[in-house]
């Protein structure tokens, strides 16, 4: 009898955790495809491993997202002003508009060639206002597009970008699935995400998100230098991944592993400089456009500050200062939490909180920004009910912003009034805060953390997994020496169905 229990425990250590085993929402949802997998399914064709299933799922969801843009592709993007069809059908994308407005159709070189105001439509935009690596991504897509500035070329530009972004989506799912070795199926929520399908081809954010997820995967494998390189490249595509270095610093400070952090930070700086330096040196004005545009941008759609501005009637000229002040307050709170919590937070938890703090305090929230949080939310709180609630709030906001723009850009004003749009912003903020509250609770009460109920420390923590605390403000509860503690067993405490006693048909 003892040998049976030993082998069952050993199997739980080695068998990947399936959401249908421990998550009632995932188990209920699996009924649409025949219910949770049993032992016979698991012993079937080995080709159908979790990674291949999730890759096929995300390709299917991405294709559905492209299909959702069909009415815009066939003409909605190219309507003369006010052009409300792309908003009324919620199929807007920046990509085809940027093709003509940023000079790709005129064969202008990003950052080097000045964009005429007749193309950009703005007296404030003189060069491409995107970070350098994203500009390179756009330029590569333009090489795949037939020359010309007409509708057909803009459509092909969107198709070329979408194909490249689909590769990024696959890479994102693979990275999330492999970051925690014993929980590969957590990547399925990313693959099935409605927000991913709806927003993936609005802009180029998915490129930076995939690079940042690659950095977290490299860190989870103990490859601190490669983690820095990928985070640095992600920051060269979109600035927000710099915050991941802040989360790593706090965790390494608490664990006394600042040398590892130093290697990662140095690699990130070198990677960022290698990408940016050529443009910075030979086209300084074009390189600076992204930073000046971001600084000078006023209160914009989706932000907390837009509600304040509209309700008070004040233009909020100091919105930069307000946003920075709120971010600093939230950052100090997150730092205190990281150093005071009874156990060191997991990397996924702290990364989610710092990026969520930026989105809450930022002066703009574009609908595709949900992609910044998606992999971090899955790593921080892999519970399908809570992730679904948050995603529902984000989908409502996705519809809200387009219907608000439809109201403003149509003569009949069909869409959302300002009050209704403010409500949509509030729903988005509450969704993010709801998930933040659960993550904070998991940090303060580790027994609520599904990844730690079996005694594990941080399966995605790399060199931090199982490390003792060296600097802590509260009374620490030291992490276990071994990170391979078994995941949560079935609710009845018994072995999994595939566990077999020694000497049986599956015995050694």
TrEMBL record:
UniProt entry tagged with the keyword Transmembrane helix: yes
Cell compartment(s), UniProt: Cell membrane
Cross-referenced InterPro entries: GT87, UCP010361
Stretches the record annotates as Disordered: 1-27, 480-508
Keywords for this protein: Cell membrane, Membrane, Transferase, Transmembrane, Transmembrane helix
Record-annotated membrane-spanning stretches: 47-67, 156-177, 189-219, 225-253, 265-287, 322-340, 347-365, 388-408, 420-440
Chief site of localization: membrane
Keyword Manganese: no
Origin superkingdom: Bacteria
Topology class, membrane: Multi-pass membrane protein
GO CC aspect terms: plasma membrane
Biased composition (Basic and acidic residues): 1-14
GO molecular function: hexosyltransferase activity
Family: Belongs to the glycosyltransferase 87 family.
Protein name: Putative transmembrane protein
Species this chain originates from: Actinacidiphila reveromycinica
């Amino acid at each position: 009898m003892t040998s049976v229990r030993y082998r069952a425990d050993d199997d739980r250590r080695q068998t990947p955790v399936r959401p249908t085993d421990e998550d009632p929402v995932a188990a209920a949802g699996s009924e649409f495809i025949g219910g949770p997998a049993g032992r016979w399914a698991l012993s079937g064709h080995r080709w159908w491993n979790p990674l291949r299933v999730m890759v096929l799922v995300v390709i299917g969801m991405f294709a559905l997202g492209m299909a959702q843009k069909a009415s815009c592709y066939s003409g909605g993007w190219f309507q003369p002003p006010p052009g409300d069809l792309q908003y009324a059908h919620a199929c807007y994308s920046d990509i085809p508009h940027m093709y003509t407005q940023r000079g790709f159709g005129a064969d202008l070189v990003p950052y080097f060639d000045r964009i005429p105001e007749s193309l950009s439509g703005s007296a404030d935009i003189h060069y491409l206002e995107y970070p350098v690596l994203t500009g390179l991504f756009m330029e590569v897509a333009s090489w795949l597009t037939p020359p010309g500035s007409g509708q057909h070329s803009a459509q092909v530009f969107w198709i070329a970008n979408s194909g490249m972004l689909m590769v990024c989506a696959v890479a994102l799912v693979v990275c999330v699935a492999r970051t925690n070795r014993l929980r590969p199926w957590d990547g399925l929520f990313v693959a099935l995400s409605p927000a991913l399908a709806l927003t993936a081809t609005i802009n180029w954010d998915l490129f930076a998100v995939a690079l940042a997820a690659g950095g977290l995967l490299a860190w989870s494998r103990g490859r601190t230098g490669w983690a820095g390189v990928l985070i640095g490249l992600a920051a060269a595509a979109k600035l927000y991944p710099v915050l991941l270095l802040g989360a790593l610093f706090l965790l390494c400070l608490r664990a006394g592993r600042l040398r590892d952090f130093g290697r990662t930070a140095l690699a990130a700086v070198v990677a960022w400089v290698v990408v940016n330096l050529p443009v910075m040196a030979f086209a300084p004005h074009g390189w600076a456009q992204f930073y000046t545009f971001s600084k000078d941008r006023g209160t914009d759609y989706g932000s907390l500050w837009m509600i304040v501005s509209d309700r008070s009637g004040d233009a909020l000229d100091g919105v930069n200062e307000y946003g920075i002040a709120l971010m600093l307050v939230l950052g100090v709170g997150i730092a205190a939490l990281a150093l005071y919590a009874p156990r060191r937070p997991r990397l996924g938890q702290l990364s989610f909180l710092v990026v969520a703090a930026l989105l809450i305090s930022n002066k703009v929230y574009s609908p595709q920004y949900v992609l910044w949080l998606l992999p971090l939310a899955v790593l921080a709180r892999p519970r399908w009910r809570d992730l679904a609630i948050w995603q529902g709030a984000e989908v409502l906001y996705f519809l809200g912003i387009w219907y608000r723009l439809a109201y403003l850009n149509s003569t009949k004003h069909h869409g959302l009034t300002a009050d209704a749009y403010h409500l949509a912003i509030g729903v988005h903020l509450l969704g993010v805060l709801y998930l933040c509250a659960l993550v904070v609770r998991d940090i303060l009460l580790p027994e609520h953390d599904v990844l730690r109920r079996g005694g594990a420390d941080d399966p995605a923590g790399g060199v931090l997994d199982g490390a003792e605390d060296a600097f802590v403000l509260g009374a620490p509860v030291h992490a276990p020496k071994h990170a391979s503690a078994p995941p949560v067993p079935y609710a009845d405490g018994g072995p999994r169905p595939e566990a077999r006693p020694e000497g049986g048909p599956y015995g050694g």
